[in-house]
Amino acid sequence: MGKERRDSLRSWTARIIEHLLLEHCPARDPRRGWIDEVVNFRSAIEHRPTPSLRRDLERHRQWLYAEARRNLQRKLERYGETEIVARFPERCPWTVEQILGDFWPLEPN
Predict the structure, then answer these.
(1) 49 phi/psi in degrees, rounded to 5
(2) HSE-up of 96 (CA within 13 Å, CB side)?
(3) Closest CA to 13 of 61, 48, 72
(4) Where are the strands (E) in the chain, listed by range?
(5) Most buried in the list 28, 45, 88, 99, measured by CB within 10 Å?
(6) Contact 15, 99 (CB under 8 A)
C-alpha cells in the first residue's frame, strides 16, 4: 500500500507540474480545463502526504519536473508546438509547497 500511495502521489505531482508548465503556452481555449485538472489533482493529494511522502517529493522534485517536461514536450510535438518547449525552465522553478498548494503562475502576456 505504501509504494502504491507514493507512486500515485508522484504521478499526480508530475501532472500538476505539466499543467503549470503550460503557463508558457499561448493557447487560451484549453486553459480552463488545465486549471480544473490542477484543482482536481491537488484535491486528490491534499490529505495524502505524510511527512515521509512529502520528503520523498522534495527529494524527487527535479526528477518529477524532468519527467513532466519530457511528457509535455512529446504531447506538444504532436501539435507542432515544439517552439514552446524552448521556453520551459531547465530546472523546476517551483517548490513542493507551490506545486501542491494554491500557487498559480502568472498568465503569459
Answers:
(1) -70, 115
(2) 18
(3) 61
(4) none
(5) 99
(6) no
Reported pTM? 0.86
Q: Please, what is the Cα angle at 76 between 73 and 109, to 5 degrees?
A: 100
pLDDT of res. 79: 79
Residue 80 Rama label (left phi>0; alpha psi -120 to 50; beta): left
DSSP-derived letter for residue 32 is H
Please give the Cα distance from 57 to 25 (Å, whole number): 26
> So what's the pLDDT on residue 108?
45
**Which residues are CB-neighbours of 24 under 8 A, at least 6 positions away?**
84, 87, 88, 108
